[in-house]
UniProtKB/TrEMBL annotation:
Family (UniProt): Belongs to the aldehyde dehydrogenase family.
The Aldehyde dehydrogenase domain, residue ranges: 26-494
PANTHER family: ALDEHYDE DEHYDROGENASE-RELATED
Claim: Oxidoreductase is one of the keywords in the record: yes
Full protein name: Aldehyde dehydrogenase
Native organism: Streptomyces gilvosporeus
GO molecular function terms noted in the UniProt entry: oxidoreductase activity, acting on the aldehyde or oxo group of donors, NAD or NADP as acceptor
Length: 498
């Protein structure tokens, strides 16, 4: 190793979260540190380590060496480890949530319920998942005598095996839940992992590593490397010892990762961008539709790929829907996420705030009508964006076609079912779409024609056992529930004579 080490045995903690976690030890970074900024206060939350390429290689080597023994552990042992880690998260729930809030700017309810709470639930889910059967018996086959041998009856099994070393690159909007959704099923299946968190909020992932270390994770099974420079993530993808890359983030970055994976024939699981269409028909319950679309303004301040940011409104209810969304947005309290009354917190950074504001300006230049928002809230500190609504939009506008990833909703009118479906499918993305209609038969009919990995009917809620992933440029593969266990495994066939 190129850097000084500190032991992580017995649940040892990284001093100030300022060391990498490699091979079961806390390692001083070769390339110094960088500041992690609270989006609400613009103050420094902590200092994150900047790994060198050599240290990323060391993390991959540690994971490679640990794979041989970890992949052969009993499922019960893997289940117990994940369960113990979940108990550490439960014990440290409040400080973990406070750190997540400081790093991401999430409201208290979101940091607790949707970040650390979801992470805890996912570790518990995959503690059970480690015990799910991995064998599928196939029907016996009768073979006649021939060049391949004597006649006989041949049995067969399809068995899921761990892929190997998985590089997990996580998103900034939810450092706890997103990392847990990769690490927990990967470990449950017997893989080892190298985690590269988003540079904006990596400290929470080190707390996850601490929880796993305290739970007894063998050295090298979990490794965490961070860095603000793109070279860290590039090295974690390109390393020869990596068998699979699991990535959540932008489509542009996903395409670069896919190119690198193609060169090495590495497995991929990619959850990329989204521009979810919400088709609201004339017979829809407008209160339900407004509340559902309104989550774009409030949930993670619109920084979520599943948000219904692109509303397609049938003309009979168009004006009432726009008015309802405007009233909803204007009632939302924007401000300090630690204040219990706050609904909309900041976005992740000044650069991202500027990007969202640039899209709002572009929408007006393209001819969209600004209904509400579009201007920076009058706050002294923090990276805030007012909930923003545009009407009179067309599918040709960049603000309608491109992922803004903020509290911005655009509304496009349509006349009939066929036009609504055509507009919804006229997109590079296909992650989650939504249909709002009192006619359930029509809603299911329309859902079947939408080119999206998931469709919500009269809801933006999710079933956490349903497969999650996208069509088109929204991703490759599916995870969540048992589908994640399949995503982090390879299928091996075993055949024998009866």
């Amino acid at each position: 190793m190129s850097a000084a080490r500190g032991t992580a045995t017995g649940g040892g903690k990284a001093p100030g979260g300022e060391r990498l976690f490699i091979g079961g030890e806390w390692v001083a970074p070769d390339d110094g540190h960088y500041d992690v900024i609270d989006p609400a206060t613009e103050e420094v939350v902590g200092r994150a380590p900047e790994a060198s390429r050599a240290q990323v290689a060391e993390a991959v080597t540690a994971a490679r060496e640990a794979f041989e023994s970890w992949s052969r552990t009993a499922p019960e042992e893997r289940a117990a480890l994940l369960g113990r880690a979940a108990e550490v998260m439960r014990r440290e729930f409040v400080p973990y949530a406070e750190l997540a809030q400081a790093e991401t700017g999430a409201t208290t309810a979101t940091a607790r319920g949707m970040q650390v709470g979801v992470s805890l639930a996912r570790f518990q889910r995959y503690a059970r998942g480690a015990l799910e059967p991995v064998e599928t018996a196939l029907p016996p086959q009768v073979n006649e005598a021939g060049p391949m041998g004597k006649a006989g009856i041949f049995g067969a099994l399809a068995v899921r095996r761990p892929v190997g070393v998985v590089t997990c690159i996580t998103s900034y909007n939810n450092p706890w839940a997103n990392a847990a959704g990769k690490v927990a099923p990967a470990l449950a299946m017997g893989n080892t992992v190298v985690v590269k968190p988003a540079p904006q909020d990596p400290l929470s992932v080190y707390r996850m590593a601490e929880a796993l270390a305290e739970a007894g994770a063998p050295p090298g099974v979990v490794n965490v490397v961070t860095g603000a420079r793109p070279e860290v993530g590039e090295a974690a993808v390109a390393a020869d010892g990596v068998d699979m890359v699991s990535f959540t983030g932008s489509t542009a970055v996903g395409q670069k990762i896919a190119e690198e994976c193609g060169r090495g024939m590495k497995r991929q699981l990619m959850e990329l961008g989204g521009k979810g269409a919400a088709l609201v028909f004339d017979d829809a319950d407008l209160e339900t539709a407004v509340a559902a679309v309104g989550t774009t303004f409030s949930f993670y301040s619109g920084q979520i790929c599943t948000a219904p940011t692109r509303v397609l409104a049938q003309r009979g209810i168009h004006d009432r829907l726009v008015a309802g969304l405007a009233r909803y947005a204007e009632r939302l309290t924007v401000g300090d996420p630690r204040d219990p009354g706050t609904v909309v917190g900041p976005v992740i950074s000044a650069a991202h705030r500027d990007r969202i504001e640039a899209y709002a300006e572009l929408a007006e230049k393209e001819g969209a009508r600004l209904v509400t928002g579009g201007r920076r809230p009058p706050t002294e500190r923090g990276f805030y964006v007012a909930p923003t609504l545009f009407a009179d939009c067309t599918n040709a506008m960049r603000a309608v076609r491109e992922e803004i990833f903020g509290p911005v909703v655009v509304v496009v009118p349509f006349d009939d079912e066929e036009e609504g479906i055509a507009l919804a499918n006229d997109s590079d993305y296909g992650l989650l779409d939504y249909v709002f209609s009192a006619d359930v038969a029509r809603a299911f009919r329309v859902a079947g024609r939408l080119r999206a990995g998931g469709v919500g009917i009269n809801t933006v809620g999710r079933n956490m056992e349903a497969p999650f992933g996208g069509f088109k440029r929204s991703g490759v593969g599916r995870d969540v529930g048992s589908y994640a266990l399949h995503a982090y495994s390879e299928t091996q066939s075993i055949v024998w004579p009866g």
